[in-house]
Amino acid sequence: MKKIKVFVDPGHGGTDPGAFGNGLREKDLTLPIALALKKYLEQYENIEVRLSREDDRTLSLKQRTDMANAWGADYFISVHINAGGGTGIETLIFNGNVSAAIRNNQNVIHSEIMKAVGNVRDRGKKTANFRVVRESKMPAILPEFLFIDNTNDARLLKDPAFLNKCAKGMENGLVSIFNLKKKAQPTPPPPQTQLCNSNKLYCVQVGAFANKANAERLATELKSNGYSVFITE
Ligand SMILES: [Zn+2]
Question: Ligand 1 is a single-atom ion; what residues have CB below 5 A from it?
């Protein structure tokens, strides 16, 4: 089955700090949000996630969309933090002719973000002629997570738990859009050692086997090392 490719673009980086205020720089916030989103999305089947940068490096806007286009991404998310006097979260898509699907995806991601972040001003779903949403060949969205130059917003942005909530919202939106399913959890192996304390008897179990011969083999080895050994069923 063809994998869903999600391209996540942490805004700014390297010599371009993005917006700043209250001791924060935009490039240092967009990266942990994007890395958290990657980690969350990798819990699902049938998905590949790629970041435009996984460290603090300079990338042009063209390099970012070129990367996503060359890779053949199915979805492009560019993570940003707002500035300029305001508060709250907004999401932007291209203001040109876009399909109903792109608008619908914005509805889904926008509402999942607002649900995940809790009590934060919803500035609404917007459109803009930003290069990253215009030049990407796949549906693209650009969320602006709060205002770095607003004292209350900055307080939230300083909390790693809040940055994770931003990532969680985007994760939930993408799960809904692409109908993603969590990977099956591997069944945990039987306990290899187990300490118990009953009636002041301290016992250490070193193996649990379906096959008695394997248990006996381990018992023989332990006996040869001077342990007293019991096999129980
Ligand atoms: Zn930005």
Answer: 11, 18, 80
* Type of residue numbered 177: I
Asked if residue 87 lies in contact with residue 155, where contact means CB atoms within 8 angstroms, the answer is no
- How far does residue 202's CA lie from ligand 1's centre (Å)? 60
Dist CA 157 CA 177 (whole Å): 27
> Which pLDDT score, from 0 to 100, does residue 214 have?
81
pLDDT tens-digit map of 154-177:
999 999 999 999 999 999 999 999
Strands 4-10 and 75-82: parallel
* The domain defined by 4-178 carries CATH number 3.40.630.40: yes
CA 102 to chain centre: 21
Q: Confirm whether 90 is a catalytic residue.
A: no
Q: How far apart are CA 34 and CA 86, in angstroms?
A: 23
pLDDT tens digits for 108-120?
Answer: 999 999 999 999 9
